[in-house]
Write a structure and sequence with these properties.
Helices cover 25% and strands 28% of the residues. By secondary structure, it is α/β, with parallel strands linked by helices. Helix 11 links the parallel strand 17 and strand 18. GO terms for molecular function: metal ion binding; oxidoreductase activity.
Amino acid sequence: MATQLGFVVSGNTAELKQVPVPMAADGECVVRVLIANICNTDLEIMKGYMGFAGVVGHEFVGIVESAPAGYEALHGKRVVGDINLVCGNVESCFTCACGWDRARNHCPVRTVLGILNKDGTYQERITLPAKNLHVVPDHVSSENAAFAEPLAAAFRIVEQKLVAPTDKVAVVGDGKLGVLIAEVLGRAQVAAGGPRVVFVGRHPEKMALVSAAAAVEPVASDGVLPSGASSFDVVVDATGSPAGLDLARALCRPLGTLVLKSTCAAGANFNTAPFVVDELKIIGSRCGPFPPALELLASGLDLTPLITATFPLTEASAAVAKAATKGTMKVQIRVHDDPAPSVS
């Protein structure tokens, strides 16, 4: 059996070891991983979240080494990919019969790359259904393209139609995902002629990573309510902490919408009373559409300033340790080098 290097999670431990080279199932491509990003979800999985065992990781860019019939044009292309693998059986699966937007995130028998019953991207090669893959424009660097999955997750809020052009919007949390959400919603409000998005965080240098095109209004807050509290129509919590969730709730006006973009273990003492009293609409938001994410990257959005460090796969443990360090933004694992450009 052919093997390759992979970073394997088992319980609360993770180690680099030889793993079998994956074999493509019907309709799947084999993809040689170029770069795997480390996500906060990956770090939580290594602590036991989801009870996952196997190769972790879901943000990536790679090159298609083999493709099934009907998708031959993907061979040799750089790609990113939807991480949810759905059954697609519209005859027996009510969710899949409702269309891709619902099936993508909610097929009841889905597997999820590096998260649920599907080995992920911290290895040399992966397999994914050809229909899940999206070709990266030639002029977008692999380092930038590796942000496509979390950028798509930010676009999910737009896809869900949660923000009206006239809405006052606040994004709380200046971590990696918060920066991307502020970028996407800021640009959307600029295009719609709406109010500037307010970006609430603790680190001015992180909030400054949002491009000028998004025109966000950064507000520094160390858990203290900024001016205009309880007046926002839509507030997005991207903090991943109970304290951040409480701040987001306090910013939201009565009858407003609170979007939960990251998970946090609130514990048994979580107080629901303020949410009920203010009659807030609480909406979860997960994976999103790749086409607008790739279009934005192709238009010139450069997310590589978010990269704190890059490590080879052979130093995956050090990469994970760096990613878990306070103040770190994005850590990338370089699995394979980009191919040399062809010479005509």
